Amino acid sequence: MDYFRKVLGAPQDVQTNSGADTVERLCERVSSSTLLDDRRDAVRALKALSKKFRLEVGTQAMDILLNVLEHDRTDAEIIGYALDTFYHIMSNEPTDEDDVSNVYGHDLGGQFTEIFIKHAENVSLLLSFLEEYDFHVRWPTVKLLTVLLTNRQKELQEIILVVPMGVSRLMDLLSDSREIIRNDALLLLNQLTKGHANIQKIVAFENAFERIIDIIRDEGATDGGIVVEDCLLLLQNLLRNNASNQNFFKEGSYIQKLKPFFQIHDEPHSKQIGWSAQKVTNMHLLLQLVRTLVSPNNPQNQTVACQKVMNQCGLLQDLCSILMASGVPADVLTETINTVSEVIRGSQMNQEYFASVLAPSTPPRPAIVVLLMSMVNEKQPFVLRCAVLYCFQSFLYKNEVGQSQIIQTLLPTAADANSITAGQLLCGGLFSADPLSNWFASVALLHAIVENPTQKEQLLRVQLATSLGSPPVSLLQQCCNMLSQGGKLQTRIGLLMILCGWLSDCPIAVSHFLNNTANVPYLISQVSSSEGDEHEAIVQGLCAFLLGICMLYNDDTSEAFSKTALKQIMQNRIGLESFTDKLSQVAQNESYTRAAKKPHLYHKHPSEIVFDYEFTRLFKSLENEVLKAVSGSGSNINGRKSGPSTEQQYKNLLKEQEDQVLLLRQRIEELQSHAISADKSIVELQRQVQQLKDQNALLKAQKGSLSPASSISSDEVDSLKREVESLRLQLHNSHIFSNTVSDENKENDPDGASVLNVTIARLQSELAHKDEEVLSLRSELDRVNEVLKQKTSEQTAASSSVSNAEVELKLQQTEEKLKLITDERNHLQERLTKSNEENLKLANTIRKLEDEKVDAVNEKENLKEEMDTLKKEQDDLLVLLADQDVKIDKYKTKLKELGQEVEDDDDDDDELGEDNEEDLDAD
Amino acid sequence: MSYAYLFKYIIIGDTGVGKSCLLLQFTDKRFQPVHDLTIGVEFGARMITIDGKQIKLQIWDTAGQESFRSITRSYYRGAAGALLVYDITRRDTFNHLTTWLEDARQHSNSNMVIMLIGNKSDLEARREVKKEEGEAFAREHGLIFMETSAKTAANVEEAFINTAKEIYQKIQDGVFDINNEANGIKIGPQHSPASQSLNVGGSGGNQGGNCC
How far is A840 from chain B (nearest CA, A)? Predict the structure, then answer.
């Protein structure tokens, strides 16, 4: 470490020298020290220097450090330092000391990597370190392998492939519980699988799909961070151009597992905040993953199978709802449209579903119409418009029903003044002032009739009202008029493409086209013109192609421009050479080859738009036939003159002519057989046409019968929606209600206690009240007793003088009073028993609430005791009263015995009573 | 497509013995007389039924060529079953079986079920390896044996299904650890022990107390 400190303090140039010296000395220490501690310190010091002195450490320490890796593997610490050192010298990543490392040139790391992997055992050694669980070993190993793969991918892939279980060990890293290792393993696997189908397959075999999808889900799907991005990149690496893995992905039901990731939660707050950049990236990659599975460049059966699964598991539906959702960023929307395009392309079931998707507008419009509105809208982003066209094309690809539906919207019979139709939008685009809209609309229209002769004929019926007063003009003628008026390049190319597509394989359209005598001269003038740049050459070439098509599919109905007439004109006005030259320029154009590559419109700038993929296919298939039609059988022209002849000459001529006759006869026979077969095929074709027409009629009828049904169902849907809304409201209310209820429940217990307290208090007061009553009762009794005593004494005193009747009356009065008192007492008793019962009830409640219980019970018992004593007292009183009764009876009998009349005056009675009492006392 | 179990197979054996044709016959029920040389490995899948249970077979068809040996070795570890194929019209492919078997035993898990297949049984006239020899080899090394023809489809179904039956039996016997996916066996999504909703046994009787 001393050396190291010296180095840090030294000035720049000295530093380099002494740095090299230090590295040398450290290397010596590592190789010569017998003590592990010393070696470990030296390797640690080397690690510290390895960023700054990559060249020195790399050149001098490589072998020594490899030695350490081999022999000191029991010590995790030293291995970790050695691996970090390797990582530093291999890594070309710019460091803090960038200026220093740049001195050694750009690919120093690559060169060291080459040296390192020259011995494949070194890589196996690294892979064997992955068995080590220690973080200080495993993590630097992962990082080192990643940087090695980054520097020398191909070589390292081959080495790892050969190491037994090499790939499997790297795959096991995904299960590491330490996130940092798992995440770095994702980066490592990304490097490992890039462009190597065999490694991709092994990785897939090791359950990569399942594990990666689990990680994506655990990390929060598209809401997750950069780890999700890495996972999606890895998935794409494993699937792109790898049919076997794609098949495995589909068979393993992993498409179904992707589905939940596409559910966008339409939260109001997310609309305001918008999507994070990471979410946009994740969604983009997720969509690209889907496209990888259904790419038109995949084997067809593969794509078809995946498309089917995507419809069945509802993935297509989810994609369509993203399409119609609000708040989705434009680039995600564009990619979603591209994805939907490829999911429906050529799959009848998916196309049908797509046609049924309605946009949530008022009134609801088909998604196709809404998309087309964006396509012909100049203000929409260019890439989005391209995506819409791609989607439209994919919808119509191999979809005769869809084609006829689109064309129907152009025909006068189906015209509905109120709603916007696809046909109206296409016409609007075709004749708009925006050249790009012209191009998009014409290509869209081309796809509506491509390989579909019926629709080509139907399209001829389309008439346009140009301006008030002037007669309607056919769509075909309007296209020609626009073409002849010149205009921007894209407008003209678009129009030429639709015309070529329209006229090919459709003699009726050709004759319509030729009926306007201005058309052919325009084309001739274009083709024969020699001026112009590369772009004009394209227009000229396309005009030549159109002219050729007019010849190829000419049924000779137009006299002025019959097949032969046209040929004559072309040969005279343009010349065969020039014609061929112009025609061949089309396919030679760079944009032609670009467009022919794949159906997807992957243009970045509007100026790149020239050709359409489907048109390039048409051109390829017809180019040679056009050339043949123009040049072939041109030998009809007989330019020979008959001069002075000899017999030989005549003989020769005769022989020649005989040969010719023979040839011609053969030719005639050939042609006759041709004609017969052609007749047959015509009959068959006619039958087919009839069938198609029937089918068409049937479909129309079906469509007619369907449309009211659909309106009904939309009504139904509306009412259902309303119902759902009301239900939701109810739910909301009940939610609020349940909330308040639960609040109440929460407070219930304390309330109960307080209620109990109150009742107890009330009871106590009641008891107190009763006590008082009892007291007053007692005092009254006392008073009564006194009165009685008085009476008895009076009676005894006036036993002789006072009349019995009076006594009797008084007694009666007292009896009544007593009765009243007893009643009152009984009443009180009743109340007391009632309160007892109440107390019992409360005791039950109290038992449930254990906190309050003890106090309450105690109090209650106290109260009970008190009440018992009161009862006893009352009982005593009762006894007393009974005694009194008995006494009164006695007095009565005594009075009777005394012979006094009971009906006497009160006063007498009193006196008597007093007397009696006195007597009693005397007894 | 739900399934009770998922088994991973590999098909191994010398080049040109008909491994890819066996797979094609099994998955697509067709025979392709001229088949491209397999590069690395190719994947195929099919659903079968054993004991009334849906079983998904995921099959990796490997390249027989020596140069791909290092690649194909990576597939042994994660496979539950292997079809070891030789060509009854080519003695050398039979002679190489020992090497194949060693390779397989070395890199696979010990429970892997190996089915020995003598393919091209339709070419009886050109037979070089007797059926008895195949049977003897299988007996000696504890393999199941069958002669098949990818061309006529004879025994092709049986070969794949019998292998699955053997694996299924091993699962029933508890030999395989079905929770370890590295064994090439996976339990279907609906068969994994899902948490069943428990019925709470009535809330305590809160009646009574109002008797007066």
Answer: 9
